[in-house]
Design goal:
Shape: elongated
Largest sheet: 3 strands, antiparallel
Helix content: over 70%
């Protein structure tokens, strides 16, 4: 079986080397010391060229959560080569491998989603002109207008994305809060059951002590009376008249624990206590493992993970927006410092775009 996987991995490695020869992430990871040894993971031995894989399959291969996988499927669908059906995502082996490259690129090379988009050409990287620009030539005008246009475009996109993501974040937080309420309520019910069982056990143990003591006295008294009757039979009538037969408790053996425990009442009480102890153990194990085993706890973990993905996307959107703002701000600041320049920039967005198109 292992030999088969190794053979299949060798086949997939050759396919990947050929198919990814011009892939920007693959090329950078193959040169970086942190990633070049990780280019061909063991799970390649489980991939087959002609098969399709789901988001869950990809999550299992790269050891990530479904939520993390879906985040990049939504943001980089064309690069990954994913097909979205009515209820799921489908991809081939190269899509699974691109997901692996994405996570390796971000984690090991300390990159972000925006870096990947720039790398694969989905977003342009704008670098404004520096102070060595001399005069208001076409390049400087293009720089100014492009910076302003980028800022406007980014503001609109940022506002739409952030509004949508903040709404999702708010819903997830409400869902998480409700789950915590239900989680604590269910846990409180288990703890209340444990308290009732403990109280019941203590009550029965008190009854058992009293019953054992009374049973001990009853058995002892039976032994005393049995000895008295024996002696009466052995003595004559006159002797019994002038010297009544009296037997002290010390003259007979005390009842043993086995004799006391043979009483039906004692046996029933002990059986009840044992049943409560078993139930108590079960409930205490349930309480101890509640945070990791209960359905609510698993739902909480899933929602927290989804919330974390949303918060990460909000942060990345903000960083991307700030970066574009800084770039366009640098361009505008440069022209503001130039003395003697009076630049007539159209207020209408359409006119600005027309200038850019020209």
């Amino acid at each position: 079986m292992e030999q088969t996987k190794e053979k299949q991995k060798t086949i997939m490695v050759e396919l990947i080397k050929e198919k990814f020869a011009d892939d920007p992430l693959f090329l950078e990871c193959s040169l970086a010391s942190k990633t070049k040894e990780k280019l061909f993971p063991d799970f390649l031995g489980q991939l087959v060229e002609g098969m399709e894989y789901s988001a869950q399959d990809a999550a299992r291969f790269v050891n990530r959560s479904d939520a993390n996988i879906r985040y990049y499927l939504q943001n980089l669908p064309e690069y990954i080569g994913v097909v979205k059906t009515s209820s799921s995502y489908r991809m081939r082996y190269d899509g699974v491998y691109r997901i692996y490259l994405i996570f390796m690129y971000i984690k090991d090379l300390n990159k972000q989603l925006k870096d990947i988009k720039v790398k694969i050409g989905e977003e342009a990287q704008f670098i404004p002109k520096r102070k060595n620009v001399t005069g208001m030539n076409e390049d400087t005008l293009d720089t100014l207008l492009f910076g302003m246009h980028l800022r406007e475009k980014a503001t609109l996109e940022f506002t739409e994305k952030m509004f949508s993501r903040f709404m999702e974040k708010s819903k997830k937080e409400q869902e998480l809060n409700q789950l915590y309420i239900e989680h604590n309520k269910e846990l409180s019910q288990i703890e209340e059951t444990i308290r009732r069982l403990i109280d019941r056990k203590l009550l029965l143990e008190g009854d058992l002590r009293r019953k054992r003591n009374s049973e001990k006295e009853r058995l002892w008294l039976e032994k005393v009376r049995a000895l008295e009757n024996k002696r009466k039979k052995e003595s004559n009538i006159i002797g019994r008249i002038f010297s009544p037969i009296i037997v002290e408790k010390s003259e007979v053996e005390a009842p043993t624990e086995e004799e006391i425990g043979a009483s039906p009442i004692v046996r029933d009480l002990e059986a009840d206590i044992q049943a409560i102890e078993e139930k108590l153990k079960e409930e205490m194990e349930k309480a101890a493992n509640f945070s990791k085993d209960s359905t609510l706890s698993k739902k909480i973990s899933t929602v927290k993970e989804e919330l974390s993905v949303i918060e990460q996307e909000i942060l990345e959107n903000k960083e991307a927006f700030d970066a574009i703002g800084e770039q366009s701000g640098q361009a505008l600041a440069y022209f503001q410092k130039k003395k003697g320049y009076e630049i007539d920039i159209p207020e209408n967005v359409g006119e600005r775009k027309h200038l850019l198109d020209e």
